[in-house]
Every structure is written in structure tokens, then in C-alpha cells.
Batch of 2 targets.
Target 1
Amino acid sequence: MPAVEISHIVKSFADKVVVNDLSFSVAQGEIFGLIGPNGAGKTTTIRMMMDIIKPDSGDVTILGEKLSEATKNKLGYLPEERGLYKKLSVLDSIVYLASLKGMHRRSAEEKANELLNQTGMLPHKGKKIEELSRGMGQIIQFIVGIIHDPELVVLDEPFAGLDPVNTELLKGMLLDLRNQGKALILSTHQMNEIEELCDRILMINHGRLVLYGNLAEIKSKYRSNSVLLEFEGELGEMPGVTEQRTRKGYVELVLDGNTTPQQVLERLVSRGIVINRFEVATPPLNEIFLRVVGKTHE
Amino acid sequence: MNKTLLILRHEFLHTVKRRGFIVMTLIVPLIALLLIGVFQLVSGVARPTVEVTTIGYVDELGGFQQYTSQGNITLVRFDTPDDATEALVNGDIKEYFVIPPDYISTGVINRYTLEKQLAALPATTTAINNFLTSNLLAGKVPEATIARIEAPLNLVSTRLTETGAVAPEQGGYGNFIIPAVFSILLALSIVFSSTYLLQGLGEEKENRLIEVLLSSVSARQLLTGKVLGMGAAGLVQVAVWVISAPFLLNLASSSIGGFISTIQLPANFIVLAVVYFILGYLLFAVLSAGIGAISSNSREGQQLIGIFTIPLLIPLWFMSLNMFFPDNPIWVVLAIFPLSAPVEVIIRLGVSDIPVWQLVASIAVLVLSIIGILLLTIRIFRTYLLMYGKRPGIGEVLRCLRTG
């Protein structure tokens, strides 16, 4: 049973179609990347998954059920722009919002203390939200998003504004959640985070699906038929290689259409060249993003 | 616990802990205390005037020798204005007046004083008036008639029922005071609560907490919890005011005196006060929630709700007209129009009888308005709550209602 099953959803605001016939699914136990340029419809899609707004048409199924009040307790959400009750204490804020997810007060308090301890925020639990730094507030909001042990967690730009230490802490917690079989949807503009954490991705632009599937497969599809090589010795002329681009510490060999990386490797070995690194070049997600979005902009 | 109850509890506690709420709750009894204090202070300062005051007069016409003791004022005769002026300057008399020879034909009396005043004090005017009347009539009519001419009317009204028996509820100011005070408190409480609700919603909207809330509860649960939580806080506020009232009345009775003993609750007042309190609250709470949903920030929301609170306050502005012209049809309109009904009905309960059909119509219109606005608010809530920074036009809201 997929954690999320989105089927042909459409949403318009004042005659402008924001999400247009979008379908995808997210499995349990995976971190799913949701990417796209600004205004692509990511947040609207997330809001429909969180039952904050209803789609004009199409279906949203969460954990095999149509969205209802009962399924809301299984959802965790960290919105892009964050805020909590400024005058309320850290612990009270967490406990109140957890109770709205169906948690009992006492168990919410216990779990809150545990998570505050895990994130190093325990000394601040009595402080008012307005006394916290932005990053600290974000950690608290993250705790609010996961305290009720949701089956599906949607995180909109979770790392924005976090220092490297907290970023690593958060990543570790996300991976733990995935290992517990939770489904996580990560929406961010930071492509390196997607590459590091996500198994599969969905890229949308103008409300439509433009890329969807396994990240490795997508990258392989967009690879630029070249290999990266670190070696010792003299390379000389190489059949099947149209261009040798010298980079810092390595060389990029651009292959012609008929030569495979395997053939190049064989030729290098037969020439007795000492190879320190041989890598089939795949473009970074960032580059794929620019290529795909650039194409649809044209 | 039910999620609506959780929101109710949170909103209630969040509101009653607000500094603004605590200040407003305490300030009303404190102002009343202050007023009583000022009243006592002023009446205390004014008390020496109750002591015997001496006023001089010069009788140029002749025949004004008797009745020189008028209550606390003693009149002393002087032969000439110069003598009187000297006594005035020396401080022997407070002021003096001259009865000129042509007084009978003109009625003019010339008064001289050292003090800067707007007009002669009422007690002085009455004393001079009675002194003149008594002397003019002396020997011409019996003493008792003179007393009646000075104070011909001591009106004692009794209200009868349709069967001719003495009605249990006699009306009058004693009957009016509690509804009048309650209507002011009700209006204040509604205005404050609407503001708190708008501020709360504005805050949640501005910091996007509303998204987290709506991912946990439905718009209906959120709205119901907020409205009821705010109503509970308002109830506490009014309860504090009402509980402090007997204490304050007790304090005041020592200075304001016997009037307090005439205070009486109009028939059905408690039942109707509770009904209109709750309905008034709900109406303005759902209205605030709707306005909170469509306005882009809490300041704009407060300006908008301000427009709707004007009809609520109109009955207070025209309270005196309401007292003196209770039969004007405008009061019927105000008692049925939902925004003004809560305050208007409470005021009218103290002023006159309200026909049953008007009460039924008024309550029915209020209930229908609450339901209507609630449904409307839930409908536009989801859509506009998330459209930050842009307030929809009326046309857009109507279109949204049609398409749902």
C-alpha cells in the first residue's frame, strides 16, 4: 500500500490553473523529493495532500484511505514559512499541537521531552517561542511535525535557515524515520540535499509533471556520455574519445556516439595506464533541473 | 479530548492570560470604583454649601420682610446696595440681590456676587424664588397654599395590570439601571472579544500556523473551537463585572443613597440577558472569524470589524432618546436588526415592554444570521485563509460562495 497516491488532481485559483492533472505515488519507507521552480505548484500540491485545501478534481489517497479527519492524525507537516504562538512556551506549544493530532497530554509531554533532549533543546523548553532563534524555532516546528509518530511527513524546505550542525542532526532524524518505514516528502530547492537523501523524485513545472521516478535512473537518462578519469602516465590519442577536457585533478573524456565507457576502460587497462578513479559522469540534479526547467520555459 | 474542545480550551486560556484581557476585565470595576470615589469626593467638597449660607437683599419695592429662612439659606435685609456691597466685600454675606421698585411689572432681580459662575446655584435660585413667592402671597392665601404653589407637583406613578391590579413591575429608573449598565458591558465585552479573535486569527495567519492547524483539524472544528473559546472568555469577563457589581453598588449606596433600594430587575431579564449575551457573542464571533479569513492582516481585520460594531453601539448612543421616546418605530427596527439587537433589546427591557412578536422576530433573525454567517465563513475560510496579502473583493467572495 503506497503512503500517498495522487491521481489526476487539478487545482485552480481564480481561473489560473496551479496544479494540472498531476499523478504520482510515494511508497512507505522512502524519502521522496518534490522539486520544481518557484510558483510551480509544489506548496499547493502539499496543501492538498495535507487536506488544507481540496482539489477541484482528482483523488488524494493517504495510506489507502481517502483524506478524512481520521487520516489527519497520521500526517506530519512542516510548512515552508514557520511560526508558532509567540507567547506560548516551547513545551506548551508542542503539547498543544500534538494534542490536536490526537495525542494524549501526558504522552505528548513525555515524547516532547524526549525529542527536545534528542535535539539538544531541552534547556529551552520553558522559554517562550519569541525568545528562540530562527533555527531553534525551526527545530521546535520539526518536532511538532513528527511528535505524533505520523506515517507520512511532509517537509517544505526543512533545512532553510539551519546551521550545519542542526542540518546534519535533522538529516539523521529523517533517515531514522525512513528506516522506521515512514514515508517522507521533501520539498526543497537545495538539489544536493535531494541527491543525498531522496530515493525517488517528482519535478513539476507550471503545475504539470516534468520528471518522475528513481533518482539514479533519471540521472542516468540525463548522463552526458562522458567519463571522469584520474590516472598516472601518458594518455595520448584515444579512439572513440572526441574530446579530453582537463579539470582540476582529473580529465573528462567525452565519448563519441558509438563508444561505451566499458570499451574506454578496457583500452586504458590494455595501455597499462594506472587508474586511480574511473567514473561514468552523471550530471548533478541541479543541471538536470536547469535543463528541464529551461526547456519548458522556452 | 475532542479536538473542538481542545481548541476551545486553548483559545480560552490564551485569551484570559492576555495582558489586554486582564486589564480590560479589571478596568471596568476600577473605573466604577473611581467614579464612586470621585462622586464621594465631589459631594464631600460640596457639602459645606449645605451649611447655612447667608445671602443679602435690598428691598427697594417694599413688603419683603418675612420668610427670610429658606432651608439652609438665610436672607439678611440691607437698606442700600452700598451697605450690601460692603458686607459682601467683608465676607459677611455670600452674595446679595436687589428687588427694584418696578419688580412687579418686570420680574427683574439684580444679583451681585464675587464668584465666577456659569449661573446661580440651583439651591440659591430656589431659595430666592420661594422667598419672593411667599412674600408676594403672604396674607392673601393660606400658608398651605403657599407651600403648594412653591412645589405643586409630587408625582407618584403606579402601574396597573390589565385586570386593574397593581403591577408587580413598576418601571421607572430603578428598573432601567441594570439593563442600561448590562447593555454597556455587553457591548464592551463583544467589541473586545471580536478584537481578540481577529488578533488571534491574524497572528496565526501571518505566521502560517494556520496551515499546521488545518492539517490537524477541519475548518469547522477550528472555527467552532475559537468562537466558543472566545465566548467562554467573554463570559468570564462579564461574570467578573457582574460579581463586582453588588459590592460596588453597596459602596455607592452610601453616597448615592436611597436610589439603590429602588433598583429592580425587569421581568424575564435574566433569561433574556443570557440569551442575548450568547447570541450577540456568537454573531460577532462568527463575523470576526469571517473577516479574519478574508482580511490580509489583523489591523485590516480590526478596521473591517469596526464597521460592523457601529450598529451594536448605536442603541447606546441613543439611549436617552430611547428612554424618552420608547414608542418610536426605529427601536423596533433596531431590536430586530441582528447587529444592533443584543444591545437594543436589553436597553428596551428597562425602558418599556417589548411585544412578544418582536422578541421572537429578533431572536429568530439573530439565530438565522449566526447560522448563515457561520456557513458562509466556513465556505470562504479555506480558500481565503491561505491567500496571504490579498483581500478578495465582494464580487470574488460571492463567486466563491456560488462555486463553493
Target 2
Amino acid sequence: MPDRITVIENILSKNDQIASENRALFDQAGVFTLNIMASPGAGKTSLIEITIKKLTKSLQIAVVDGDIATSIDADRVAAVGATAIQINTGGECHLDAAMLNNELPKLNLSDLNLLIVENVGNLICPASFQLGTHKSILIASIPEGDDKPYKYPGMYSGVDALVINKIDLLPYVPFDMDYFIRGVEILNPGLVTFPLSCMTLDGIEDWLNWLLKLIKYE
Amino acid sequence: MHELPVAESLLEIALKYAQKAEAIQISHIHIVIGQLASIVDDSVQFYWDIISKDTIAECAVLHFKRIPSQFLCQNCSQKYHPNNNDFSCPACSSTNIKIIAGREFYLESIEIET
């Protein structure tokens, strides 16, 4: 007999459930966690390197690096003094909560103050997969263009802070900051933003201060 | 390109509900996806055909209901579908907007044979 059954269940509910388990582990260990997302080349690894360099004296930091192949990024962050774990997703375009969960036993979470997850460079897929981290950070960069909030609303609407990297290139590339910010503001009202340059280090202090405050209170 | 994990999740959820109802076959699956969620229907169906083999969901037809994104202007209460490169309110140009539709991403129902 044919029959119709109502389901109404979020398609990624299992991922969300593992994400909650990750969060519980982080909270239990007292480690503050970030999920850093951006398109390839926006400056994820550069921002992480600088963050480690500036904070490594006072904080124990580890990085989980998601990439489709290679350990270039993990090597870079290890070189500046953080514990680094590489996840090669083997072509998968994002990290999911289970992939992160598998790596956590390799870290002594309770010895850490800050765990940074560097997601795969992509503005689409990572937005759909919660990892359980405390804050999701998006890095936009000036050469990508000012239309990105309009083209990737899913990503821009789901993050807790926005870093605008490569502001030192503003004199050289067409980028209408008002147009960009208008799109951001509609999708994510009141979103905290950090215009900065990982090259000149302009604006880095604001980012670090924001982060330090959060680590202290979490 | 995250259609494979999406297809796997769909299968898991559909089988769970079908088993509860003691179904012998799942014939249709109805999925609701908002415009702000990025999923390629054909690609999900492609993975589905592979992973559902030898389950009671083999040969099930996937139906995707697409929900266009809809914004509500908090200033003048205008409801509208945003255009591609300007999200502000077409009536009053306000940017004080609430997204009221377009984020949907769920399995709505399944049709089964018992």
C-alpha cells in the first residue's frame, strides 16, 4: 500500500549532531576554537601565521589544516611554533564535523588555549557544514572583488566575524567598499569586521584584541 | 561538490523513517532546498543512484522543491525577492533586511510501499 510519511528533518542533522559533540569536547577542555573559511588565496594561512606569531608566547595554539592535498599549510603554521595537524580531504571541498572529530584524539585539548581550524579554500561548501567551533570567521580579500557577498550569500550570512584582508591593495584594484559592506550588512546585520593587511600588518591589532577577549571569556 | 555527503544523509534519514513504518520500498523522496543553499540536483541524483543500490530506496525518485530567497524590509515591511547584485529594498532602499526564506534544507516527506 502506498503511503506518504512526513519527515521534516534537516538533511545535515547528523553533521550538526557530531558538531555538538565536538563543541562539548572543546568546552570540557576549556579551549577556544575558530573555523576559518575563505576562497583560495584570501590569506587564511597568512592570518593564522601572524596570529600564532603574535600570541604564541602567552597561549598554547594548535591548528587543524584542511586541504584537498599536500601539507604546505600545516608546514607553514608548524614553522611558526604551533602544533599542526593536516587533514587531506582527498578532493572533498570542505571539512565536516566527523573529519574534525577524527583528528581530535591527536591533540591534548586541555593543554590548549586556542584551536584554529583552517577550512578548505572554498566559499560554498564549508558554509553548510558546522564543525562545532565557537566562532566562524570568513576572510574576504580585496582582489576577489566587491561583489562576493552578493554571489555567496550563504557563506556571508553564516559567519560571526569578517576579516577583510589585503587592504594595502585598495589603491590598485577597483573595489567599492560601500557596495561590499552594504551586501554584508544586509546578509549579516552588525557583523564585526576587521579590515587589515597581513603584509603591512595594518589593522592586525584589532583582530588580535578581539580574539584575546573571546579566549579570556570562553 | 558536497552532493555525496548530502545524498548519504538523505539515504540515512529516508531509511530510518521507512524502517519505522515497515516499508518494503521507498518510491519518492521530497526535498526542500532554499536558494541560499548550494546544491546541484542532478549531482545528488547521480550519487543517489549509486549509494541507494541494494536498499529499499533503490529506484526512488528524488523531488527537489526550490524555495526562492525572500527578504523582508524592516523599515517599510515590503517583501521581495532580491535581485542578483543589489539586495536593498526596492521600495525604500533600506538595507535593514531580514531573510525570511531561502535557507531551507530539509527532507520533507517520503512515499513508501508497505
